[in-house]
Specification:
The protein is α/β, with parallel strands linked by helices. About 15% of the residues lie in helices and about 25% in strands. It is built from four helices and 13 strands. The chain is globular, with a radius of gyration of 17 Å. The two termini are about 15 Å apart.
């Protein structure tokens, strides 16, 4: 199965030249390190950065440059910094072509729960609701199961929703799946993972037709 960097590498293959891309907190931030050569994209962070680069090397961090997850980042030539109101103006005006974000749960209808677990302290909503409501395309980077081994791909989300019927594609440590009217459609398998393993780890409806190819990562 893939580790977090493997998930990020696979998602980086979804990024197309010329896109404006928002990277959410967690696994999505790693995508910045794996944008393929020859692909030129502009990475946006909702706290007010346009033109983020990869993470800095140790010792080269600048505490003034952080992403929405409070991690230090680099800035590429031509980048800009602005207030969050301007940033969310970009998001709500649908200037972002692709949003990549994490999730606690995704339903077979494309609903996403990503911001709160009842009874646990939460710092705030963040920008996820605006992003899932406004982005032209959304990919979720997540673990297929939780720490207890329970599926996070469900027939119906059990946690408070972030967005409804908005998720198009999911990449986990086990597979790449699309959300369709019939359920989760299995598109690719991680190296060493079988269709049966994915079926056992998916609580929602799973469609697995024909020979499922192995993910291409490198």
């Amino acid at each position: 199965m893939l580790d977090k960097n493997g998930i990020a590498k696979r998602i980086a293959r979804e990024v197309k030249d010329g896109m404006y891309v928002n990277l959410g907190i967690g696994i999505p931030t790693l995508v910045a390190n794996y944008i393929p050569e020859g692909i030129h994209v502009t990475l946006q962070s909702e706290n007010g950065i346009l033109g983020m680069g990869p993470f800095p090397f140790e010792g080269e961090e600048d505490a003034d440059f952080i992403n929405a997850g409070k991690q230090t980042v680099t800035l590429l030539p031509g980048s800009s910094i602005f207030d969050s109101a301007t940033s969310f103006g970009m998001i709500r005006a649908q200037k972002v072509d692709l949003t990549i974000l994490g999730a606690m749960e995704v339903s077979e209808q494309g609903d996403i729960a990503s911001w709160k677990i009842p009874g646990k302290m939460v710092k705030g909503m963040g920008g996820a609701m605006d992003l899932v409501a406004s982005a032209k395309n959304i990919i979720v980077a997540m673990q297929h199961v939780n720490k207890a081994g329970e599926s996070k791909l469900l027939s119906k989300c059990t946690l408070p929703l972030t967005g409804v019927k908005c998720i198009k594609r999911i990449v986990t440590e086990m597979a790449v799946l699309d959300v369709t009217p019939q359920g989760f459609k299995l598109l690719e398998l991680a190296p060493g993972v079988s269709v049966e393993q994915v079926k056992n780890a998916t609580a929602g409806r799973l469609i697995a037709e024909g020979n499922i190819p192995e993910m291409k990562i490198d």
